[in-house]
Backbone:
């Protein structure tokens, strides 16, 4: 067992590959890359194969796919209105990618790519650029009205514009840090409790000191690990939902300018 809880976040090269003079650009296929590919493949496989039969009475896989579809669709319609449904493929893709990425990280031996801020920041920037592009495409220069709410006194306008502009520009960072911090902290906590359980079991194992009480004491951390794992599964799903919900809220700003 590794004694460093941060070891699980180490990027490891699986297929080394560099381009440019003196190998300036490292494009190696890593464990993080593999986890991302698996997340895309599994999410795609779920939607493709579960809906291939389109049974009137759905099986388990089809029911799961339909629940996920309806869940994201209802979230988008509630947060941004029916007009935003044209952007549903983008929002649904973001949700499925993050959901499967978070859940894959709960599998022993798998890599949690959402625990790296470079990945979550890239996702945040993607949402930011797409939403901003939609805003300018729909409203042109009128999109700047988003930074000056209607009815603001002229005297307060410069201050309000600065506040709104700063809050808008930091959206990628807030999206990134929220997801990254929750996944990182949760996995570190699970690893620490697992290591603690292993050490206690090794110390108070039956036959080593002959005390039944010691053996029972060594199993106590396991009673904490089980609900902790359940909590982390919930957090993995919740963080994918929160990221998606904020994407819908930002889409609402771009479409309706409020």
Residues:
């Amino acid at each position: 067992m590794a004694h460093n809880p941060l070891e699980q976040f180490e990027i490891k090269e699986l297929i080394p590959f560099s381009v440019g003079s003196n190998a300036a650009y490292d494009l190696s296929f890593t464990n993080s890359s593999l986890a991302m590919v698996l997340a895309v493949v599994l999410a795609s496989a779920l939607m493709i194969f579960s809906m291939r039969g389109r049974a009137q009475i759905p099986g388990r896989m089809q029911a799961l796919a339909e629940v996920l579809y309806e869940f994201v669709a209802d979230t988008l319609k509630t947060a941004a209105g029916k007009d935003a449904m044209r952007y549903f493929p983008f929002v649904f893709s973001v949700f499925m990618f993050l959901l499967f990425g978070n859940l894959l990280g709960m599998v022993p031996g798998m890599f949690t790519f959402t625990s790296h801020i470079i990945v979550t920041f890239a996702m945040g920037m993607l949402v930011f650029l797409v939403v901003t592009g939609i805003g300018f495409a729909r409203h042109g220069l009128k999109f700047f009205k988003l930074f000056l709410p209607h009815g603001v006194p002229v005297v307060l306008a410069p201050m309000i514009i600065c506040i709104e502009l700063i809050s808008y520009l930091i959206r990628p960072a807030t999206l990134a840090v929220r997801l990254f911090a929750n996944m990182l902290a949760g996995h570190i906590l699970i690893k620490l409790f697992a290591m603690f359980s292993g050490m206690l079991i090794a110390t108070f194992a039956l036959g080593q000191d002959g005390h039944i009480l010691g053996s029972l004491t060594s199993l106590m951390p396991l009673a904490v690990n089980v609900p902790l794992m359940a909590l982390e599964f919930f957090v993995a799903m919740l963080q994918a939902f929160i990221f998606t919900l904020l994407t819908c809220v930002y889409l609402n700003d771009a479409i309706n300018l409020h």
Summary: The radius of gyration is 23 Å.
